[in-house]
Amino acid sequence: MLKFILVLGCLLAVVYSFAVEEEGLPSLAAEAPETARAKSLPEGSPCDGDQDDCQCYGKWHKCRCPWPWEDGPCRCAMGMKHTCITKLSCPNKGEWGLDWRNEEERSPC
Prior knowledge:
By secondary structure, the protein is mainly alpha-helical. Helix content is 42%, strand content 7%.
């Protein structure tokens, strides 16, 4: 009987410790940066010029802001090879579909 109470007490302690650990973990959605949670913007869409180019869809598109004498907001536009190289580390590459994956097997940019 004493062994049964001891085993039951250990089992309750283990269950309680796992329950406390799960409550202490922050949610993954709260940890993800805003750019990683946001959907990628298609070409021609207005974008935020203060953020990185990962907000625009695809590895070749960047957020292009107009010159001071031009009028209008920043928009997602086609970039150059440097854009592709910098976007290889974007956390939201999975949203871009399968096209970039096929190209990446041959050459990243």
